[in-house]
Amino acid sequence: MTLEIGVLGYRFMGKAHANAMARLPMFFPDAPEIERIVLVGRDEEALSDAADRLGFSSVSTDWTEVVDEVDVFYNLGPNHVHREPSIAALEAGTPVFCEKPLAPTLEEADEMAETAREAGDDVPAGCAFNYRFVPAIQYAKRLLEAGELGEIQQVRGRYLQDWLVDPEAPWSWRNDEEMAGSGALGDLGSHTVDLLRFLVGSDDLAGEIERVSGHLQTFVDERPVEGGDETRSVTVDDAYTAQLEFENGAVGSLEGTRVAAGHKNDHTIEIHGSEGSLQFSLERLNELEVLRDGNRGYETILVTDEDDPYVDHWWPPGHVLGWEHTFIHENYEFLSAVANGDAFEPNFDDGLAAQQVLDAIERSDEQGEWVSLE
Amino acid sequence: MTLEIGVLGYRFMGKAHANAMARLPMFFPDAPEIERIVLVGRDEEALSDAADRLGFSSVSTDWTEVVDEVDVFYNLGPNHVHREPSIAALEAGTPVFCEKPLAPTLEEADEMAETAREAGDDVPAGCAFNYRFVPAIQYAKRLLEAGELGEIQQVRGRYLQDWLVDPEAPWSWRNDEEMAGSGALGDLGSHTVDLLRFLVGSDDLAGEIERVSGHLQTFVDERPVEGGDETRSVTVDDAYTAQLEFENGAVGSLEGTRVAAGHKNDHTIEIHGSEGSLQFSLERLNELEVLRDGNRGYETILVTDEDDPYVDHWWPPGHVLGWEHTFIHENYEFLSAVANGDAFEPNFDDGLAAQQVLDAIERSDEQGEWVSLE
Amino acid sequence: MTLEIGVLGYRFMGKAHANAMARLPMFFPDAPEIERIVLVGRDEEALSDAADRLGFSSVSTDWTEVVDEVDVFYNLGPNHVHREPSIAALEAGTPVFCEKPLAPTLEEADEMAETAREAGDDVPAGCAFNYRFVPAIQYAKRLLEAGELGEIQQVRGRYLQDWLVDPEAPWSWRNDEEMAGSGALGDLGSHTVDLLRFLVGSDDLAGEIERVSGHLQTFVDERPVEGGDETRSVTVDDAYTAQLEFENGAVGSLEGTRVAAGHKNDHTIEIHGSEGSLQFSLERLNELEVLRDGNRGYETILVTDEDDPYVDHWWPPGHVLGWEHTFIHENYEFLSAVANGDAFEPNFDDGLAAQQVLDAIERSDEQGEWVSLE
Amino acid sequence: MTLEIGVLGYRFMGKAHANAMARLPMFFPDAPEIERIVLVGRDEEALSDAADRLGFSSVSTDWTEVVDEVDVFYNLGPNHVHREPSIAALEAGTPVFCEKPLAPTLEEADEMAETAREAGDDVPAGCAFNYRFVPAIQYAKRLLEAGELGEIQQVRGRYLQDWLVDPEAPWSWRNDEEMAGSGALGDLGSHTVDLLRFLVGSDDLAGEIERVSGHLQTFVDERPVEGGDETRSVTVDDAYTAQLEFENGAVGSLEGTRVAAGHKNDHTIEIHGSEGSLQFSLERLNELEVLRDGNRGYETILVTDEDDPYVDHWWPPGHVLGWEHTFIHENYEFLSAVANGDAFEPNFDDGLAAQQVLDAIERSDEQGEWVSLE
Lengths: 374, 374, 374, 374
Prior knowledge:
Four copies of one chain form a homotetramer.
Chain A: E1 2-8, H1 12-27, E2 33-40, H2 44-54, E3 59-60, E4 72-75, H3 83-91, E5 96-98, H4 106-119, E6 125-127, H5 135-145, E7 152-160, H6 177-180, H7 184-200, E8 209-217, E9 222-224, E10 231-233, E11 239-246, E12 251-257, E13 266-273, E14 276-281, E15 287-291, E16 299-302, H8 325-340, H9 348-367, E17 371-372
Parallel strand pairs in A: 1-2, 1-4, 2-3, 4-5, 5-6, 7-12
Antiparallel strand pairs in A: 7-13, 8-11, 8-17, 9-10, 11-12, 13-14, 14-15, 15-16
């Protein structure tokens, strides 16, 4: 059986997922067979060009006609387009893979997760937290689950970018509250919250995030519209910080920013337990810094050995992987789940859980006080 | 004229300052002449040994007899012994140099700063924030004051140690609220707050810290008393985190901990401005990471060139300095100020300002909401 | 027109090139159209499996029937199989792309380069020095050619691996002089020599390598044959070192090893000129360390900006590439040259030039004295 | 008993050793008592100033009157002044501590070592290879001697400085063959050779260096004389490289340079054994990178724990030491040996052994072939 795939969105994320799908047969021979059957968008010409380049056999400008015709629906549009098509697909029994953050608002995310639960386990609804699929992150999870760091006491997550440090950088939908929900918080913070939940969120580690204090800040209030003389208002945050307390009492710090000069895509996670520590940075994603086993300092592990997660599919030790490989691993897991009727994680509940934390951060910022999650 | 110095305290800090004083003549020939005339403590035998080793010509077990007899009084005792002798000295017109944090409580710090102001500018009252005197930090300040980082938008300060990560690490006065005031917050946080104030606190940079959200946590509730079977309660924090907002709207994050496995004395400061960034780490204190001048990445500057701050007193480029050199620079500046009747910074007002921030963090933690500083 | 490609070899290098070819249409839309038409090998079953997985439409166990039937012939077999099929293809007017080192011996390399020259410029004969196609390396070349490092005075190249550090690691053709020519020297040294030639070999930089001193060493004399009780002799070097002198008087050091515990694929290049320095390491291939423009320290440049070499074909800044991307860039350039009838570099003359240096290193080792290259 | 010390030389090295002596009582209470009794030089005024600053009670412009009057004689003059006063002192039965390299030529070094052997073990003759006394280096030696790296197979030593990269940097005695013997080779190479001998030179590790191939190069042929219009010829090397073979078959690479832009005092040692590896860099002298115990990557060890070599004399963990501390440890060991009548290493035989290697490198460079050491 070949899974027929429909994809909404053909820019950055469209390209990343199309590439991932195209590479599965050569490197993951046990992945299900798929066909990129329809690419969905609004601008017919751009759409048609993209379909050619990304290997789709047809195009459509109407997602309503697609969601119940395909075997799997990928929703890779901007945040404000996540809800409606995803729900329609799930209601039609079509497995959905939706980009993160799950939705611009908690309400929408809630509705989407509810729909996914109703659709049932054999209609997987995945949320695209691709950084779970970095080999070094999966390796870190192995260490954590084996208890090698002891009791988790402190975590730190930050995601630093600099593409808005120039006040003349142009306005985009990502600067608009209506379309994006929030700024650095939703775009970057959702990744960080999910990674922390993935790594330390289980009951025998730190558990869920229990309460938060948040702070959002916008440094540049309006930005020029590309190709014109106008400016438009920035209605989202350029940067956020947060403090966390986990169920087990562990403390955490979060930060995300689009104005950190010199940091392009610097997503770092640091975890301290009673028996060890670890550090990860996305710009050096093949490496993991680990302190354990009575060692005195961090050991720099190049996570490219044959028995490291996913690595046996690729190249010999030391032949490093790139950012895009996270999408290939993610698509492999998601499409395998669809084909096998298995559950997939991260799912819409994970997307919702991240959203709840982000929403609590935003409310905390407005109220000037800690906010507890239910 | 030779300044006669009396010093209360002969352990870690006593040794660090005695060493600093002893080295001034060879490396800072224009420093005032001094004599280490009396060392103050309680345990006569230990005191006498220490005086021999640290080069003091006499000892005393009664600070009240010392503070008005010497030209300068160093108060290097535990936090709860800061207030009384410092005030007595200042009231006697004796310049005082007091270890940090200025006091266990804001009230005491307030009283000390008030007394120092009354004593007047020609009776310097210094607070021992020695990290201001790292050459790389002074170099960073030069860059910041020259506007090379543009408008300050984000700062991060964290101070990670691991000496309490072992639950069996013994109890000490540093674990006791009465004697220490707080734990990681006061001990480590006071350094971090002061460094941030020093670097970005001026009006044309970020200005003062305006409001804070704080979080304190104790992971190990009681600890064994050394040399016995008993345990005693830990009544201070093992770790704290905080969020900051500065006068100019810049956002900040703070963290201090004594339970970060693998970090011995890891004090890092990171600053992002609209035109550049910088990073400093105490464990590599000869280095500064700087992004500026349209560069694309951080430049690793070894701050050991002849025209770098203080370096002409020492060795040729690349011959690195150590932690103790911060004390020599600090003592040079303080004793020169005393000899010349000049003002000295960081002074008790700086000590108080740091204390106000720490106090606000503590109150925020108790109240679960942001606290504004007046 | 579609180029029909025949490939000899279906293991590590076969997979790397098949992947590269498969990805061209999506990321390099102006690359020529190609068809992976025939895969050549000896073991029919393995071959057939590989052809399926790697996307070839047919297989052959006889390269003689292939080399004149295809539009392009890739020779990815072991070193001792490079000469005969490559020459046959070139004599048939078929462009050839051959893995490195060009041949086990200088004589064979010479004959191959001679044949390539006779075939003429419109029959490109490429030699697979893929590390020329790392964006950071191309960026370094831009800097060097713009004269930003001044007069080149010192270079250092080393390639450290550890897969033979265990004396029980099994014997393979790479340990055999007949089949491989040499050990670390040919396998690793050919890459290093080519990168140095590429970066500083032009006349206005350091020029060609003029004389060398070499040293080869074998630490483990025999190794177990996999799946049996026998051992076989290791007849090649485990490690080599060399000193170089370039035409302009610059000095150089080379080293390659398969027994450097802790180094998986650590290929580093360091260059010092009269006005700057640079450093590159393959395990962090997205980064380049550069000292220039009157800076005081190395600047860590993440070579992932839109106007960095090849990067506009991929992802936004900070989304790092992997090892395999070097093959995609290399195939893009080679196949474009074939389609357009352009010359391609690195070609067989470059392969020969590297071989001449390696041969001189080997002779120097035997003779115990410096050896000049003609 | 108080040892009366006479010191020839009051510039860089004079200051470094005077500082070391001055600090012993506070930090090494069991060090012998000493008195800096006479400082020897030629320029009376400068000498007198220096004596004041460095704590000497008298001065002399005639070393012949000093060497037999003091209990210990430090020879810290330029290389060409090492031989005569050192020999005179030893012949008078006065222990000598001489700066490195031991002499400008092998012949002089030989004569000095011969004299030292004749003077006997109770007249210690130390050679100032201070980098043996870095705690991280001593820690490395512990690991090596415990066999933790297995059989030593490869070593690398390089010492990079940049103070002559500017062709206008002024001429000094260090550029003159008569006075200095050689350039980077003697000045930097002597340190590197000694560290390698110290770390791996014992019989059960790599043993002595058995043969070498050397290469010396001068990039700037003449330099301006400070304060005038003249230039003088540079008659020594700006940079050298060498290949080594040790008794046990281990291979090595050496390099030293004064023209490596961006490197101030970058002395690195790297060692690979059959069971592990280690790396050290002088610019981060508190750290050691170690791979062992079945770890996968290098562990960054901050060698500042209480039971690390010499550290218990200083500060708590993480409070880093500087370059000058190596002199304090060195003086402590040497003066203790003098006081106790013990042998001291590194001694003149070690100085000679380093010189033999450097001489062999120089002869190899002249002859264009490997040179064996007897």
